[in-house]
Amino acid sequence: MSAGADETSRRPVRPSPPPAAASPAAPHYLGHRDRLRSRFQEAGADTLPDYELLELLLFRSIPQRDVKPLAKELIARSGSFAEVLGAPAARLTEVKGVGAGVALDLKIVEAALQRMARGAVTRRTVLSSWSAVLDYCRTTMAFAEREQFRLLFLDKKNAVIADEVQQTGTVDHTPVYPREVIRRALELSASAIILVHNHPSGDPTPSAADVKMTRELVDIAKPLGIAIHDHVIVGRDGHASFRGLGLI
Does residue 4 lie within any of the structural domains? Predict the structure, then answer.
């Protein structure tokens, strides 16, 4: 036997490394998330049902969980995507899987939408952007659980110079003080006002009390050169315009 062969035979035999462990399969929901994001990017939000749009938001708040069942439960409880965003944080956290952080994220999205809608009407002539005014009113008030009485004060060019919630009431009533409304209009040197309030019941039909209060406001404002352009009631089921109904 040659010296080289003998040396080779004396070398220690190293054991073969164990086979590499198979990498765990990716959770099934990751593929679903990728597909849903692609659909949103390629076809737009209008092609997604409410629960899928809500899923896209929840992906960022809950990265390690399948959120489709949670999105569906939130929609089922509230009624729509908009109503989920409009729900109070305390009600959102009643749903198992929605913690304070998730509720906060959803309320931030709601605030961003309201800010964007407000930007579409502030300092703009409302008569040329009436649809934006209605969108803003619905975004900010339609899904609130208590009645709010909002005032949009306008200048001589019918541009919005102030947007204020004067009163917040109960589920079916908001106290309104016409003289306080007019006093505030005079402080702002407003030439006109649009009155807005919501009906948490969802039905925007004006009540007899709504009609009486509006006519009282018109009677007080007119001698002072302040016009009441409209009184709009918003609800989940739509909106009602006093001017459109011939009530002003």
Answer: no
